[in-house]
Backbone:
């Protein structure tokens, strides 16, 4: 299960020439977008796990949905999509098999690949699952008071992100680049799960202690910064979903939130993007890649 970065500022020249640059990269014209070979990698935020309908081509354990942002993008531009995103994926699953019979995700990438997108890193070191479950459980025990999760775990999650997730992300992105040297590669940051400050009205949906809301928010911000830095270090495009998703976290009302809460969710996508969130991730990825 998976979790600020500065918004990319495009100059007037870049805006004017972005489409041309993208077409030069792929050798395509607007009319030949269907010829683009598009590969989608990543974890449950890429796969839209918890949303229906399921992708019939995906292994059941991956819980991949046809509502994920890759399917949205491919549908809009008519690209040939190979989607191997899988719920629970870590960076190590790019080079190794995540489940019995599931090929390494990098097997889908090759010299003919034009575009690659992914969301990855939140499952490394069990960052998302461990922090959310731990903080949610402790928040229930303290009835929402104090900062029990921060008090118990301190910098543990942040230390792992810095020492383990950062190098793993860089290695994974370099591996993608090596297999598809001419492809445009984009990695999306994670949309905000929690608001910047505690909202008492949200506690029934996200049972986090008031002092742990900013703690988890800072943790996710750290992860997104590391993802941005890994993208910069490897020449990949970083898609800033933190800035875009401000006010659309799991505490926002139905129709506004992009992330579903732990309790009283409208779908099975607990603490994951709902279809609106996936569509918004598609919007921002397309803009960053100058697609469509």
Residues:
């Amino acid at each position: 299960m998976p979790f600020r970065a500065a918004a990319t500022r495009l100059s007037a020249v870049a805006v004017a020439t972005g489409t041309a640059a993208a077409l030069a990269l792929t050798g395509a014209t607007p009319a030949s977008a269907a010829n683009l070979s598009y590969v989608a990698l990543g974890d449950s935020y890429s796969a839209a796990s918890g949303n229906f309908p399921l992708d019939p081509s995906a292994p059941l354990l991956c819980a991949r949905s046809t509502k994920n942002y890759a399917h949205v993008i491919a549908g809009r531009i008519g690209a040939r999509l190979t989607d191997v995103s899988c719920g629970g994926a870590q960076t190590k699953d790019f080079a190794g098999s995540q489940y019995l019979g599931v090929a390494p995700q990098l097997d889908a990438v090759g010299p003919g690949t034009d575009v690659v997108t992914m969301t990855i890193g939140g499952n490394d070191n069990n960052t998302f699952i461990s922090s959310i479950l731990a903080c949610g459980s402790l928040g229930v025990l303290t009835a929402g008071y104090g900062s029990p999760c921060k008090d118990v775990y301190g910098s543990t999650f942040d230390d792992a992100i810095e020492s383990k997730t950062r190098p793993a992300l860089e290695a994974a992105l370099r591996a993608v680049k090596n297999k598809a040297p001419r492809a445009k590669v984009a990695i999306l940051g994670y949309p905000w799960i929690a608001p910047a400050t505690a909202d008492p009205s949200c506690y029934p949906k996200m049972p986090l202690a008031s002092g742990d809301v900013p703690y988890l928010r800072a943790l996710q911000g750290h992860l997104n910064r590391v993802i941005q830095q890994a993208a910069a270090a490897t020449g990949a495009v970083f898609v800033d979903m933190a800035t875009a998703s401000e006010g659309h976290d799991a505490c926002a009302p139905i129709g506004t939130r992009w992330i579903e809460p732990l309790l009283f969710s409208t779908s099975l996508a607990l603490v994951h993007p709902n279809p609106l969130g996936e569509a918004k991730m598609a919007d921002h990825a397309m803009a960053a890649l100058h697609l469509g």
